[in-house]
Amino acid sequence: MISTTGGLIAILTLLLWTLSAVVFELVGRRGGSSININLSKCIIATLFISIFLLFVSGSFYPLGANSKTWFWLFLSGLTGFAICDVAMVNAYKMISARLTGIIMTSGPIIAAVLGFFFLDERLSIISVLGILLTISGIVICIVSKDSGSSKKMHIDIPAKGVVLAFIAAVGQGSGLVLSKVGMNFYRDSLDIVSLSESSIYIPLSSTMIRLMTSVAILAIVVCVRKGWSEFFSFCKTKRLIMPTSFAAFFATFLGVVFSLIALNYASAAFVSTILSMVPIVIILPDYILYKRKVNAKQIIGSIVSIAGVAIMFIF
After folding, report:
1. Where are the domains positioned within the chain?
2. DSSP string covering 224-269, please?
3. Is the whole-model pTM more than 0.85?
4. Which one of 17, 61, 107, 259 has the lowest number of neighbouring Cβ atoms within 10 Å?
């Protein structure tokens, strides 16, 4: 039985994540680079999570994490935040947040396959059906036949944007698996019983470690590129940093917190399915902001891909 509270919180999280996609595409189109957007986002979100942890545990820093925990969460932060988010924002600018979101429904597929090989997680026939359905939905959205006599298949949108979206999906999926490994080590190493048994502390602390990893990696990239003046200029430009800060607070921080709270009231399958609906919910703001029309093929493809995700999680 799914509680009304869990459903409402999951839907609120969905709206926050949709808002995040809209805002980050907007900032990208205003001239913000993917590195600057994500570095500032991760710094801001880390600060808010540290304040939240201070109220939860009395410490603004993750407690009790051993070297194995840091190692696996470092890898998760590298793939799931640094690589994923940079590729995702670049894909937003090239093919739109909506189409990027549709392609990134393949993220759970990658997580399921990696979980099967590296975590001994079960992959049932129904799960395989869900994977095939999700892939079919993505293909429906981005592939068309030529109108000429050859009837050859071609990709409707820029191939580079599609590749970037798939890189983001791989980063997201692998980041989830690596995060799960890290959280398992964290749970075993944390000797504060009240916190180790908390349904929110370990995921939130793990998110903070992943965010700090991303901040460190992106800062190194900025140093190598000698781009600190550009970054500080980004932070001083209100039309760029204000929406980035807004999305970092409401989506990266509150979105994470609300998704964890939703899991306390509803099943992971239900919450994950709701959160996969960003490509559907974003259609209206996408049309309002950019006057992008949506054809029947894209709507059908979106529904099919989300149905595949739902089958994977529910059955």
Report:
1. 4-314
2. HTT-HHHHHHHHH-HHHHHHHHHHIIIIIIHHHHHHHHHHHHS-HH
3. yes
4. 61
